[in-house]
Amino acid sequence: MHPVIRKPSTQWLYTILTGGLYLFYWVWRISCELNNAEEKVVLNISLWKKLLFVILVLTISSLAYLKYANDIKPFLVMFTSYIIFIFYVFCKIGSYIKSKDKEHSLGISYSNFTFIFLLFVIANTGVIYMQTALNKIIAREQNAS
Fold this sequence. Notes:
The chain is mostly helical. It has helices at 8-17, 21-38, 45-69, 73-104, 112-121, 126-144. It has one domain (8-144). The chain has 6 helices and no strands. The longest helix is centred in the middle third of the chain and has 32 residues, at 73-104.
């Protein structure tokens, strides 16, 4: 499985329409494709699966607790876990983009801060930002081979 050039606006739209759930699938697909293309573990998918499982368990238990105990603390723990997961995963992908940019001198000037800002502040547009950078890298890799 080789990395696929995707339309950034389509990835953004899927993320919006699914309430952010597509974001997890999108990251998983990107990670699998990059790991296969590089023939090494660029992005540790098994760790992400474990973290995501923990977050889902926290989410379900937090929502149940919130409904019956009317206490928001478990929900805040779940939300904090989700934010940490997002930061970890996307900073790893961002580091990969930066290393490939340096390797190929693409001039992408990708920033993890800009991605996080766009993702959380401007309607998940960080997805467009990251996919555009990935598309440049994928296109360069395909042209080189």
